[in-house]
Amino acid sequence: MELLIVTVLIGILAVLGGRLILAPIESFTDVARRAELVDIADNALQRMSRELRVALPNSIRITVSGDRTALEFLNTTTGGRYRARVESDGNGNPLDPVFNSGTDEFDVPGGVIGPITPGPAGQSSCLDGDADCLVVYNTGFGAGHFNAYNGDNIAAITAVTPTTITYNNGANWNFPFPIPPSSQQRFYVVDRPVSFVCDSSTDELRRYEDYGIQNTQPVTDAEFGGPGNLLADNIAGCAFGYTGAGTRHGLVTLRVQVQDAATSESVALLYQVHVVNVP
User: 115 CB contacts (<8 Å, ≥6 apart)?
Assistant: First the structure.
C-alpha cells in the first residue's frame, strides 16, 4: 500500500515537474524560431536599403507582374560636378567649356574621384555593360523628363584621366549634354542596373545585376538573362512602394514577410529608405 502511494505521488510530481520544465523550453524554441525569421527578413532589407541609398536620382521603378514584384534602380559608383562656364587656367588661356563638342570630354573641378571603367564608343556600349555610363540631369519618367533608361541623357565613358572624362554616345553632343543642364552642375557615373525580385510562386527574394539597361523594366529570369542570386527564402510576401518621384527627396517602402515552413508562423518587417532625387 505504501509503495503504491509513493508511486502515485512520484507520478504526480513528475507530471507537474514536466509541465514546469516544458513551458520554458517551448518558449525558448518559439523565441529562437521567431528570431531566425526576423534575421532572414532583416538581413534582406538591410542589404536592399544600403544599395538603394546610392541609386541614381529618379531611377527607381517598381513593377508587379503575376507572381513577381520587381524593384529596379541604376547603381552609381561615383559622381561630381562639371564647370558651368569657360574659365581661365590662370595664365590668360581659356579652359575647355563644360562639354567640349569637338572632343566629347569635360573637366572635373577637383579631380575625378572613385574608380571608373571606360569602354568602347557608342551608347550601346554603356547600355550593354561594356563601359560605365555618364548620366546628367536624370529627372525621371514621363513626358518632358529625361530618362536614362530611354537613353535620353546617358553615354558610354571611353577614357578617364585624373581631371577629365571622355564620353561617346555615337553622336556629337554639344553643350550642355543635349538637354538643359543640371541646376547644380552634377554628373553621375553608373555601372549597372540592379533589381530585387520577390516571387510568390517560389517563396524567394532574388537580386539581379548582370544584365543591360533596358527601356522596359525586366521582371522574368529570361529578361534578366539568368536566375539571379538568392537573397532570402521562405518569403510569404513582399510589398515595395516609392513616393516622391520628381521631388528633391523620395521615400522607398520595403515590406517583407517571412514564414516558417513547419509551423506556418510568419514575421513581417517594414523598412523605409530616404533617397535623394536631386539630379
Answer: 77, 78
68 Cβ contact list (under 8 Å, min separation 6)? 197, 198, 199, 200, 219, 220
Which residues in the chain show pLDDT less than 50? 28, 175-176
Q: Which of 130, 147, 150 is nearest to 138 (CA)?
A: 147
197-217 residue pLDDT tens = 999 999 999 999 999 999 999
Contact 252, 52 (CB under 8 A): yes
Q: Which residues contact 266 (CB under 8 A, 6 or more apart)?
A: 37, 236, 257, 258, 259, 260
Radius of gyration of the chain (CA): 27
The amino acid present at 132, given as its one-letter code, is: D
Residues in the chain: 279
Contact 251, 55 (CB under 8 A): no
For 258, the grid coordinates are 517571412
- Closest by Cα among 104, 87, 120, 121 to 165: 104
DSSP state letter for 149: G
CA–CA distance, 34 with 265 (Å, rounded to integer): 8
Maximum alpha-carbon separation in the chain: 118
Strands (DSSP E) along the chain, which ranges? 61-65, 68-81, 105-107, 133-135, 154-160, 164-168, 186-199, 204-208, 229-233, 235-243, 249-259, 266-276
Q: What is the pLDDT of residue 175?
A: 47
User: Who contacts 182 (Cβ-Cβ below 8 Å, separation ≥6)?
Assistant: 136, 137, 279
What's the rounded Cα separation, in Å, for the pair 195 and 128? 16
Class of residue 263 by CB neighbours under 10 A (exposed 0-12, middle 13-18, buried 19+): exposed
With 0-12 / 13-18 / 19 or more C-beta atoms within 10 angstroms meaning exposed / middle / buried, residue 3 is exposed
